[in-house]
Amino acid sequence: MVTLSTQIIELKKQFPLQISRGTSTGSRNVFVTATDGEHTGIGECAPGTGEDMDLAAKAVDQIAALNKAGLYDLAIQEVFTKMEHMEMDRPAMAGVDIALWDLLGKQANLPLYKMFGLGKPVNPTSITIGINPPDVIAERVPQIIADWTQWQAKALKVKLGNPEGTEADKAAYLAASEAAAPYGLDLRVDANGGWTAKKAIEMIAWLAKHGCSYVEQPLPKGDEDALVEVFKRRKLPIFLDESIHTSKDVAKYADRCDGVNMKLMKSGGLTEALRVVATARAHGLRTMIGCMGESSVAIAAGCSIGAHMDYIDLDAHFNLDPDPAHGTKLVAGVVVPTNHAGHGAYLE
């Protein structure tokens, strides 16, 4: 029978990350181990930052309750259903689900990406610059390109939705664009729900004239009705992030976006992530995988299904000081898993 255990590790960011909803300097992540007595899988739960740090303790309690209930010889999909019935938080579910898939890969002695019938990812990851004054952005963009990715960066995601308004957003974007120009980076924007519908229409049109590839989550979660008009008048592709947690959300909002950003912590792990991808494809949508404040453990798990994705944002581990785990490689701007069994990541 498989048993679960947990440990909490404090993660610190090298650079604080400010988005439209606040600033994160680190997180308390829960690392989950699943063992059958011979093999051990590891997963990660990134439950939140800032005022949500108490969610790590809640996740530990939920995983302990699941372990006490017993996993027996349940298939991973059956465990996933059991976690849903227990009303576990999605990040806690993700920690367990990732650990179980890693365990299964080690039992089969296969990398997870091969177990899923996939190759390794081929699309480069974005690196992210948070909301900052233009002078800070101008200085930091070259620094993160050098420090985080050893000059292999191919794309830059610029966080907008500044509470100071769209003029501040425009100044920040132009600073990022100028700083990124010598490196030939593809520019992408994530508003994290920081705009109204009127501002979104205006900003998307402006960004379309200034070399942006797409815009992510222009409106806040819960304002999806207003997204219909924004989508109708868009000048760039729109991807939804905060609005999309599970495959049911994809079906609900498929008529007002061009693609979806799937995150393991939102979906509850790889099991539901694969359903999100399948539902998106069935609706003719493009796919993206993103991350929260995660180490290389969850990043490696995301890499295992990266071949499904049109766009990839798996860069959180580059901004950790230090990353407590290892398990991915950066090849020409692409974050790829190793060929080790399971997702290939491990804690130091």
Structure characterization notes:
With 348 residues, this protein is of the alpha/beta class. Helices cover 38% and strands 23% of the residues. The chain is built from twelve helices and 15 strands. Strand 8 (238-240), helix 9 and strand 9 (259-262) form a beta-alpha-beta unit. It is globular.
Low-confidence stretches: none
Termini, distance in Å? 26 Å
Helical/strand content category: alpha/beta
Q: pLDDT average, as an integer? A: 95
Name the overall outline: globular
Number of helices: 12
Largest sheet: 8 strands, parallel
Order of helices and strands: EEEHHHHEHEHEHEHEHEHHEHEEEEE
Instruction: Report helical residue fraction.
Output: 25-40%
